[in-house]
Structure formats: C-alpha cells, structure tokens
Design goal:
- The chain contains 16 helices and 20 strands.
- The chain is globular and about 80 Å long.
- A hairpin with a 5-residue loop joins β3 and β4 (104-106).
- It has a 3-stranded antiparallel beta sheet with strand order 10-13-14. A 3-stranded antiparallel beta sheet has the order 15-16-17. A two-stranded antiparallel sheet has the order 1-2.
- By secondary structure, the chain is α+β, with helices and mostly antiparallel strands.
- The two termini are 43 Å apart.
- The longest helix has 21 residues, at 189-209.
C-alpha cells in the first residue's frame, strides 16, 4: 500500500451463512462462511493516487507503471469504438487465448467454459472475418490440424490429442465450414487447398468408412451419428444418462454440413485439375443432397425434419436446425424450400433475442430456463433461446429475400436490438441463452463467444452501421 499514512487494525470477524441468491436459484450450494481479519485505514492525500497491491510473495512491478499500462491498453481499445458493430468487434477480442505451446484458440464463454471445438469453429468466422482479421482466423484453423484424429476434432481441448475429449460428431464439420468461409474472405483458393485440402479429405474419408460416435454414411448418402444414449450434436443435454433431445440417426444440420463438405471438395479438386477426384466427390454430394432435399422435406409443414431416425423416419419437431441447413453456402435445397424454412422460423422460433430451440406450440416446449441443473438441462434445447442462431437465420433469409424487403428490415431490428443487451447482463457481451418466453431473461454464461460472433456476423451481413 503506497500511502503516506495508513494503519492496520486487527478485528477478526466471521460472517456465517452468507447467502448467494443467484446460486440458490441455480440449484447450487449457496451458503458460505466469510472471514474478515481486520481493516486498513488510509488518509487520502489531496491529488495523489493510492495503490493497493496484494501478493503471495512474488515481486511485482511498480503499481503505478502497471496502472499506466492498463490505462493505455484500455484507451487504445476504446479508440474509434462508436457503433454497435465496433463494440462487438471489441468484445470478440476477449475470447482468444494462446495455450502453453503458443497455439491460438477460442474460449467458448466466461466464466466457466474452456476451449471447445464445436464452439470454436462455429464462432471463429464471426469473431474474425467481419473485422478483417484473416490472419487470426487462419492461425486458429492451422492450430487445429494436429488435433485431427480419425476424422474428428475435439469437443473439449486438452494440452494434446491424448488429453482431449472427442465427443462431438460435428466439430470437424463446423471446422470445414470455417475453412470455406475463410477461403471466401481471403480469396486464396490455391493456398487453402494446399494447407487444408488434405485435412478436409481426411474428414470426408473417415465419415465414409465410419468412425467414432456412430458416424457413418449409408448407401443412400445419409450421414448417421450418435446413439440412443449419445447426442453428439450441439443439442447434447443429458438428464439421468439419457438425452433430453434425442437426435440419434441423421440430424439435419449434420447432413447439410456433410453435403457442403462434399461439394466444396469437388470444387477444390476441380480447381486443382484432378477431374477424377472431383467427379467422385460430386457423386457423393449428389446422393447426400438428394437425401436432404427429399428425405428430410416434410410436405405437411413445408419444413425440414429435425432428424431422420436410424430407420429413416422423420422427427417433425419445429427446431432451428432446419435454419442451419438452409443457411449453408453449398445447398441442394430449392429457393422455395429455403424460403419456407425461413418463414416458419420467423413465425414460430424468432424472438427479440434469437431463436427458440423448439416451437412454443409443441407440448414439450419449456419457456423458462431456470431452477436447478436438471430443470435447466431439460429446458436447454426445449424452447430456450440461443442468440447465435440469428446469424444463420439472417444468412438463410438473405439467399431468398431482398436485403431492403420487409422481412430483412424486421430481422435487422432484432439484430440491432442486441445493443441494449450489451449493458444488461455481461457488460459489453452477449449471454449464452435467454428464456423462450417474454421478457426473455438472460441466462447461462454472461459472455458467450458464439453469441457475440454470430450477432456480429449478422450485423455485417445486414450492413448495419459500423466499420
């Protein structure tokens, strides 16, 4: 403590059973004893700063220098930050880190998530490309390559392959989409093929021959994943060892990502002058596309089935995964199919804070994300709103509706409305989830990477204000 006059007065006091209301509502241990050893009294001299530094014995730099460095850093960050998009770009910096080997990665959310593969590759394009940070996007993609194993990338990263968890059927597929979007932004087609072509083909070959997590492709071109006791997609909540949202079989967004990978590989091989390989991938793409366009299509609702079970029977639940499928750059879906998916999502899933995970007309719908861990897990993908889904709704809508039309203006209002949330829960950030029912209270982590990323990407696609 750097002050002319100060004194410490010992006054040991225990505060018993302090109650934490937020933890109580979340069903966790919510009472704790706190100890205060005493107090420090300081005379504050006029016009002079006072620094309080606590250490465990290590020597720290001069506190005045530390404070000046922090002030300079924050001032530099804040310079030029005026628009909503500027604020989201500033927020996106928070999620990048480097591991002990210097490999850059993405933290899924604060305060309790680490580096998760699915979250990383879903969020990466939005965290980097709207701001023109191609080098950072490239570095994260390259850093993932050593972790590729049997066509899979980790769901939860460890220090190396051996200590990583490979429980996500789609992390590698989201990686392939991130490579595609990076390629479009960088316009470096040949370089992308040289750096990532082998990895993309290794993922496709592994899925074709069959790999872990029930991943395999049948003779019709349908991609299977998961099991009755394993949800390997992003809707992965489990209660008492059973999936809350069973999706064993062929989830629609995985089929769409699979088709996109095959079509992308055909184009890359063709550009490289390998017509035989290009034709092979195109044939696989045609089969996968036929499944998506016909087997998944429900004429009764003019919407895509959420999943085809292992026997090919459709799950007709109105969920946002159909929107993910309709948003892909490479897609066999017709404009009519895409438009119909978007319109039903606008009618039943869209809220001011993103898309619900289940239509409120479904008897299984749960509109409040609240209570203990089991109650929240049951609601997690059964009506709870996820902000990151708005990016894909905008992307799908832009393919079939004019930018200046009424639908897109309505979507732009929803995206712009997130600005008020930046000061509501996690300052400067966007929460993980919101209630499905009004007033759509925020929940989960107060700062989530893919929430920031996809709202930023949506704002960029809609040409909302900002640089």
């Amino acid at each position: 403590l750097d002050a002319p006059v100060f004194q410490y007065e010992a006054d040991p006091v225990w505060y018993r059973k302090v109650e934490y209301l937020a933890e109580l509502r979340r069903g966790f241990a919510a009472h704790e004893d706190l100890f205060s050893p005493g107090r420090i009294e300081v005379d504050f001299p006029d016009g002079q700063p006072i620094y309080f530094v606590a250490t465990l014995g290590e020597t720290l730099p001069d506190p005045a220098a530390l404070w000046a460095e922090e002030q300079a850093f924050r001032k530099q960050q804040a310079e030029g930050v005026q628009s909503f998009r500027d604020r989201l770009i500033l927020a996106s910096d928070t999620y990048f880190y480097k591991d002990t080997h210097g490999r850059p990665g993405v933290i899924a959310g604060f305060p309790w998530f680490g580096e998760w593969g699915r979250d990383t590759f879903l969020a990466l394009p939005g965290l980097t490309l709207p701001a023109g940070r191609l080098d950072l996007c490239h570095a994260v993609l390259v850093g993932a390559l050593p972790f590729l194993r049997d066509g899979l990338l980790p769901n939860i990263y460890g220090a190396d392959v051996a200590s990583s968890s490979y429980q996500s059927a789609d992390a590698a597929l989201w990686f392939t989409r991130a490579v595609l979007l990076y390629q479009h932004a960088s316009e470096a087609d040949e370089a992308v093929w040289n750096e990532f072509g082998a990895a993309l083909e290794s993922i496709a070959e592994a899925y074709l021959r069959g790999t872990d997590l029930g991943l395999r492709v049948d003779e019709r071109g349908r991609l299977h994943a998961g099991s009755p006791t394993l949800n390997a997609t992003w809707m992965d909540a489990m209660v008492h060892g059973e999936p809350v949202t069973p999706r064993a079989g062929s989830p629609v967004e995985l089929q769409a990502l699979w088709y996109q990978l095959l079509a992308h590989l055909s184009e890359l091989r063709s550009a490289a002058g390998d017509d035989a390989a290009a034709q092979r991938w195109e044939q696989h793409a045609q089969r996968a596309g036929h499944v998506l366009q016909h087997d998944f299509w429900l004429s009764s609702t003019e919407y895509l089935a959420d999943t085809l079970d292992p026997d090919g029977q459709p799950d007709a639940s109105i969920r946002p995964n159909a929107v993910l499928a309709a948003a892909m750059y490479y897609s066999p879906l017709s404009d009519h199919q895409k438009a119909s998916v978007v319109q039903l999502a606008l009618a039943e899933l869209l809220t001011p804070r993103g898309l619900r995970t289940l239509s409120p007309h479904d008897p299984r719908y749960l509109g409040r994300y609240e209570g203990g861990p089991e109650a929240r897990d049951r609601a997690y993908h059964q009506g709870t709103v996820w902000p990151w889904l708005i990016g894909f709704l905008v992307e799908a809508a832009l393919q079939v509706f004019p930018l200046q039309g009424a639908r897109m203006r309505s979507l732009a209002q929803v995206v712009a409305g997130f600005e008020e949330h930046l000061g509501e829960h996690g300052l400067g950030h966007i929460s993980e989830v919101f209630d499905g029912d009004p007033p759509h209270r925020p929940g989960g982590t107060p700062a989530q990477a893919w929430s920031v990323a996809e709202v930023l990407r949506a704002a960029h696609m809609l040409e909302l204000g900002g640089s």
